[in-house]
Amino acid sequence: MMLISEPNAVFSLTAGITGCSADKSIKTYGEAQNFFAAVDLKLDLSTIMYEVYRTINTESGSKPDLMWGLTVLYPITVNNEFNMTRGHFHQDDTKSEVYYGVEGEGLLLLMDKKGTTWAEKVFPGSVHLIDGQHGHRLVNTSGNQALKVIACWSKHAGYDYQYVEEHPFGFRIFAGIDGLDIRRNVVL
Ligand SMILES: [Fe+2]
């Protein structure tokens, strides 16, 4: 008899990733305040800014080593600045990552270690091949719709958040009167 089992996890645009090998984390405004240029007192600290669902693969040395995740970035502005993820470099910069846009519109901000910053448009069907040497951050620019992006990466990539805090992305994305208002990031 051939063994037929359930899959490790199940993906849905509405329920995220569920199943025995999946977990979910939430980032509130209280945790995300310092990503933005200025504090917005109109936003409750408990506001959910984004959710990350991912498959969990905890066995050391296990193969395959790939992780699969979904980021749901809500349509929120902070003093007119579009909602964004924390952003990170990989601790192991030989490990790359793939993003795939599934819903909403946004930008994928990318940055090298010299601080040069650029972006790719994210939309349903967009595919992004992220070099492990580049920092990456998602920005939801759709205004009224969640930005949902699938990611696939090596569990050995690791997350270097501190480098981004000490060397911020070069631009910030605000809602302009008739489109995006892209401003050079002023580091004090
Ligand atoms: Fe990453």
Automatic annotation (TrEMBL):
GO terms for cellular component: cytoplasm. Keywords: Gluconeogenesis, Glycolysis, Isomerase. The keyword Nucleotide-binding does not apply. Signal peptide: none annotated. The keyword Nucleus does not apply. One of its GO terms (biological process) is glycolytic process. Residues 47-165 form the Glucose-6-phosphate isomerase prokaryote domain. GO terms for molecular function: glucose-6-phosphate isomerase activity. Pathway: Carbohydrate degradation; glycolysis; D-glyceraldehyde 3-phosphate and glycerone phosphate from D-glucose: step 2/4. CDD domains: cupin_PGI (cd02218). InterPro entries: G6P_isomerase_prok (IPR010551), RmlC-like_jellyroll (IPR014710), RmlC_Cupin_sf (IPR011051). It catalyses: alpha-D-glucose 6-phosphate = beta-D-fructose 6-phosphate. Its EC number is 5.3.1.9. Pfam families: GPI. Transmembrane segments: none annotated. Belongs to the archaeal-type GPI family. This is glucose-6-phosphate isomerase. It comes from bioreactor metagenome. The gene is pgiA_4.
